[in-house]
Amino acid sequence: MKENEIVNITPTIDASKSLQKKDEQKFFSFPNSPASNSMINIVSHADNLEAFAERMEENSHSTQIDFFTPPDGSSKEVSQRVKYSTDNTETTVHLDNIDLFSKAKKPLKKILTYTLVKLSRENVNTLTGEQDIAIRFPLEDFVDLGCYKTITTARQAFNQAKNPLTSIKIEGVVRDKRDMKQITDSGIEVLFTGAHIKKGIVEIYLNKRINWKVFALQYFSILPKSYFSLSDNAADTLLNISMLARKRISEIKKKGYFNLSFKTLQQILDLPDENKTKNPGRDIKEPILHAISEINDSDNGDIHIEACYDSNGNINQFLTNGYAQIKVFNDYAEFFNGLAENKENRIEEAIKKHKAKSLVQKN
């Protein structure tokens, strides 16, 4: 194969067959690795990163966000470089033009999410370093999913998002037991080397110098297809629920639900500080409750969210004590219960091996 030949990857089985079956029905498989999740969070909050970082560290003590000094001749409003440390992973994301990301924020988030959805179906691990990698899908997908009403509006949104999409730069490390794996071959690299629409087909090129398995394809969650037709706040809430659910598999298996604090939802949705807005009911409480209501109305029985709070309390009580209780049923519960059982089996097997090894050493 020639060095510059572009490979259009065909879908392969990276996840389980049961996940693929669900994927064809109500869900998409979605990369849920710490590094790719960190990138999504940074890109999603590009225009308000410092406030997001402050809230993130307050709400999640295991997460740390560090800001690098911008390059000479630029300011943080123009260029931002951020290290996001969590889950044995350090991910540095470099955004060259904050204004570019801010203006394209709405279309970029869903287009980036769908790009990762398509990536989860591709076997990028069998390709050699000399091959360029292309993901292709019809532009019409965005209309079929309810993301946009017409091909024209979908094209306009993609054209607005493609410049920031191809400007995301990344580097970092993932620690797996005793091993430390690099996300990129050398230094900071752009994630997507190009993107365009050709005869109604979207083409997005993956940087071959990135270890895509380490970056995004270690773990998977499932994302309801309804995500793409939701309003921005409801979509952001549902995406974060899907990312968080994989961390809460033990709770899901034991209780059938897990909780998400309203403080965290305030952070996820970039809602104003409760002490700086004159109308916190309109600016904070209503967006959270509307997002929950919209998800419940769009779902077909697999996810139900109950808003738990004191209706007579003030905004501080609403945020401090209030939470969303996310109950999962049917296929959604089955998927995460399966993950929990696999985890329990691995732990049990590790304990047996340790006991057997200790017994041999004693004898």
Describe the structure.
The protein has helices at residues 17-23, 34-44, 49-59, 98-103, 105-119, 141-144, 151-165, 212-215, 232-245, 249-255, 262-268, 280-298, 315-321, 330-362; strands at 6-8, 27-31, 64-67, 80-86, 89-95, 132-138, 168-176, 179-182, 189-190, 192-198, 201-206, 220-224, 257-261, 303-308, 323-328. A hairpin with a 2-residue loop joins strand 10 (192-198) and strand 11 (201-206). The longest helix has 33 residues, at 330-362. Helices cover 44% and strands 23% of the residues. Helix 5 packs across helix 7 (151-165) and helix 10 (249-255) crosses helix 14. By secondary structure, the chain is α+β, with helices and mostly antiparallel strands. Mean pLDDT is 83; it is low at 1-23. The chain is built from 14 helices and 15 strands. Strands 3, 4, 5, 7, 8 and 9 form a 6-stranded antiparallel sheet that branches. The protein has a 4-stranded mixed sheet with strand order 1-6-11-10, covered by helices on one side. A 3-stranded antiparallel sheet has the order 13-15-14. The protein is globular, with a radius of gyration of 21 Å.
